Structures are given as structure tokens and as C-alpha cells.
Amino acid sequence: MNVRDPAEMPVFDMEIDDQYDPVKWLREREKSKESEYKFVKTLRDQSELCRQRAKIHNGVDLAVPYGQTHQDGHGLEAFDWFAPFRIPEKIQHVLVYIHGGYWRALDLPESSHWATAVTDFGGIFVGLAYRLAPYQPIQTMPQRICHGLQTVFEHSHKKISQKTKNTPNIHMHLVGHSAGAQLIIESVVHAIQLSKQQPEQPQQQQKEEQGDYQWLNSVRSLILLSGIYDLRPIISTSINQALKLENLHQAWQISPLRLFAEPDTTIRIPTSIRWLIAWAQFDSPAIIGQSSQLINFMRDYYGNEGDKSECKSKSCDGRVDSFCVTNEDHFSSIEKLHGGLKQSNFFKKMLQFISVDSEDV
């Protein structure tokens, strides 16, 4: 029997746990668990408003399955698909949102809260949910999300073809908040690995995952807000009760930061993909530090030195931009997306970043 070295086992650290508890860093709200419940209810109510509005012009497909859809409270493998009243013929921007919740909370009902803001600008919005930890191991979440993204791509292709009578020209933009940011990057990595290893996989696995990387060619940008890119600190927090990470090495193997801190030449993210790395001004220092660390490693990776101040837009070889969502915290930065340009400067930044303009629509 293997006996683990006690020194390698995760030890709870209250100070680190506080750094990764968004409630303790809220700007103006009561800093209690009640704030979490209100946040979830707000996202759910906003999402329902978007669904009801989209139903008026028959512009929504709800709970489109890509896997487990049993409503047991542990996460659906399904997505809501929202189309504008008129789908553009030249370019179809498809924004796929993957929620946060530290891999263990939120679900499909809370994932479509800013759909209307996107469709009002002629974009297609997708709120993609996933199975939650511990019922889905964090290590296999990217594999399932890859399958979800392939289903989104195929569904979008079919619907766009039907509505425009033209060959679709899909530009996919993946938007992730908090844990969702980590899942987006790891899903891209998994798709890259699938595309290279497919011929070498066992026949049964090939059948199960065949084509689950085709969506990757349509991705134009990764838009990441308040992401977790180094999971090593997480093993010392209460979050790890659901993730069940056993040691630093295990946490590092699913940390996107490793891609730039310890580059693997077999994993090359397509140069056609641009990055927007953002954080809220009133996120915790640890969350802000996660974004800063990723940006610095990416700057070194792309060999571009520049201004390292935190709240200024900057680029790494034109592929990476960064943005501080001023006057917002971990919750409000997401809630205000519902109001579009009127309420969210992050939404405005996103539109500028993906170049949605009158020529596209």
C-alpha cells in the first residue's frame, strides 16, 4: 500500500482561503453568504428576462443537450442558444459564455444573463453549462466542454444556414469568468491535443471524441475575466473540498499558467486567437495577481516588453490585451453585463476587442 508523505497533503490556510472568497472583497454589499445567494438570484432573474425576450421573435433554443441533462442540481451539460432578429450574412459572431462558481456552483439557469446585450448588436449568444465538481472531476471538465463547444458549433452552423441561406462564416469568441476562464484555456489545449492525437487513439475513444476539436478553427478570441490560472493556491482553500486536488503537482498540471511558464512545444495555441485578460478593480489581490502573473508570463513568452502597470490596456505582440474593469467587484462586473453598453464598460471593451461593428452586421 502506498503511503503518502504528509508534507505533500493539502493543508487548509485561512489567509489564502480569504483571498479566494469573493464575498470578503465586495465593494459595497454586506459581506456575508447572503451576498452569494443574491448574486445567484440576480443572474437567474436576468437570464430569464433574456429568455422571455428572445421567445418573442422565436430567437432562442433552450437547454440544447450535449450530454448529461438530468436535473440533479449538480450541473447540466446543455446550452441556451440566442440569435439576433436578423443574423448577419458576412460574419456571424458567436459569443460562448462559460460561468464561474469555482467549478462547483452555478448552472444553466444563471448562464444567459447578458444574452440580450449581445443579440442587440447582431451577435449570437450561447450560455454553456457543465457538470460540476465533485460529480465531474476538474481534470475531465475540458474534455466534456470540448464536446459541448463542438455541439455549439454544429448547432450554430445549422441554424445560421437555415436562417441566412448562406454558408456560415462563424467567428467564435469564448468568454469565461473566474473558473470559467481556466476551463476555456484548458478546453482549447484539449482540442489541440485531440487534433494531433486522434489517429493514435483507441477506436472506441476515437468514436466518442471524433470531431470534438473542429470548433477550434472558428475561435477568434478568448475573453477572460477574473480568471484562475494557477490552481496551486486553491489546494489550501475550502474550494478543494470539491476539487479534491491532492498536491501541488496535480494542481499545476491543470493550471493554464504552465503553458507560458513552462512551454510545451507540442501545444501551440493558434496565432489567429487573440486574448483579452481582464479583472475587476475590487477583486481580491490574489485574483488580480493571477491575471497580472499570466500577462507577465505571456509577455515573456511572446518576447515583448512593455508597460507593466495594472490598469492600462497593453498588448503582447498584438495577440494579448488586458483591461481593468474599474469601480466593479467580482460579482458586479458580471451582473452589469446584463445592461450592455449602458451599464458595463467591460461589455464595451469586448465589442471593441472582437471588432463588432456596422460592417459585420
TrEMBL record:
Tell me which residues make up the Alpha/beta hydrolase fold-3 domain.
95-239
Q: Which InterPro entries match?
A: AB_hydrolase_3, AB_hydrolase_fold, GDXG_lipolytic_enzyme
Q: Which GO terms describe its molecular function?
A: arylformamidase activity
Sorted alphabetically, which Pfam families does this protein's record hold?
Answer: Abhydrolase_3
Which controlled-vocabulary keywords does the entry list? Hydrolase
Name-wise, this protein is Alpha/beta hydrolase fold-3 domain-containing protein
Source lineage: Eukaryota, Metazoa, Spiralia, Lophotrochozoa, Platyhelminthes
